[in-house]
Amino acid sequence: MSDPFVETINSWTNFFMLTGSVAATLIGLIFVSVSLHIDFIASVRKDSDMNTMARQTFGDFLIILSFAFIFMVPFETPMGVGVPLLILGLMMLARTGKLWLKFARSRSSRRRAFTSNQMLGRL
After folding, report:
1. Under DSSP, is residue 107 helix (H, G, I), strand (E, B) or coil?
2. Rounded to an integer, what is the distance from CA 121 to the centroid of its chain?
3. 87/72 Cα distance (integer angstroms)
4. Which of 25, 36, 71, 90 is a plausible cystine mate for 16, CB 3.0–4.6 Å?
5. What's the CA gap between 70 and 82, in Å, rounded?
């Protein structure tokens, strides 16, 4: 008799394969867009909004890819899925909190691509 948890995870295999493939493709497209616009990226300040948002987007795609990898492990146990998902969730919570604090502290909208209220509302 097979485990219902494993059966449930296995029934979602195609979804996780598709999600991982899409995330990997989008990560590749980020690399292509960076290489095509390297002159613009090099001229932008390190702490600029565009740089921050690009890093956040790249990290989000890596997290989605990690989720797909976690669920693609064969014959996984609930603890073997739960612990990595908890760690990834805490990492994303910390990254989002750090980004939120960055935009909350910098209220000056001079030379900003986004206002603080726009960013805080979206986060």
Report:
1. coil
2. 18
3. 17
4. 71
5. 9
Provide the token pair at 59. Answer: 């990290």
The H-or-E segment that residue 13 falls in is helix 13-36
Q: Which domain holds residue 14?
A: 4-122
CA distance 113 to 119: 10
| Whole-number Å distance between alpha carbons of 101 and 21 | 32
- Vertex 14: Cα angle to 83 and 58 (nearest 5): 60
Please report, in tens digits, the pLDDT of each residue of the chain (123 residues total): 478 888 888 888 899 999 999 999 999 998 888 888 878 777 766 667 777 777 888 888 899 999 899 988 887 888 989 999 999 999 999 988 888 787 777 655 556 666 666 666 665
Q: How many domains does the chain have?
A: 1
